[in-house]
């Protein structure tokens, strides 16, 4: 709506302060009903997602490879964050990283600072390994073309 100027006086998105307030108020209002509130590094970037762990969030989105839903909506960070880096920024926020499944059952807790390498930690070029959403959408090879009658 912002990019196509469909609504006047519309900002391109929330400010960083708006995002922090949203997570903090969500924790206050939903705390008993919703145990887990996620900060999204895909949408907010790693630094703000890390900060949100001190403003109401208690979960960070996963590693993701070539995420396209948030990226297509304008998010800038959706290609890949390596598991080791994700655990580092969670620790730097004073939290203990844990791996969970989609139902929030804890699968593994990463105590201390020793980390084993996982296959995703060795990826050097995520675009080359997984493809690039931005390159794909810019390519004419996959554009719909209406055939002439």
Provide a descriptive summary of the structure in words.
With 149 residues, the protein is mainly alpha-helical. The protein has a domain at 40-53 and 60-139. Helix content is 34%, strand content 7%. The protein has seven helices and four strands; from the N terminus they run αβααβααββαα. A two-stranded parallel ribbon has the order 1-2. A two-stranded antiparallel ribbon has the order 3-4. β3 and β4 (106-109) form a beta hairpin. It is globular.
What kind of oligomer do you see? single chain
If helices are DSSP runs of H or I spanning 4 or more residues, what is the number of helices? Answer: 7
Shape: globular
Helix content: 25-40%
Query: Which class do the helix and strand fractions yield?
Result: mainly alpha
Order of helices and strands: HEHHEHHEEHH
**Proportion of beta-strand residues:** 5-15%
Strand numbers in spatial order across the main sheet: 1-2
Q: Give a short account of the largest sheet.
A: 2 strands, parallel
Q: Mind telling me the C-alpha Rg?
A: 18 Å
* Beginning-to-end CA distance, first to last residue: 33 Å
Low-confidence segments: none
Integer average pLDDT:
88
- Topology, number of strands: 4
Task: Show the helix and strand layout.
Blueprint: H1 16-30, E1 38-39, H2 41-44, H3 46-52, E2 59-60, H4 69-72, H5 83-92, E3 98-100, E4 106-109, H6 126-130, H7 133-138
Parallel strand pairs: 1-2
Antiparallel strand pairs: 3-4
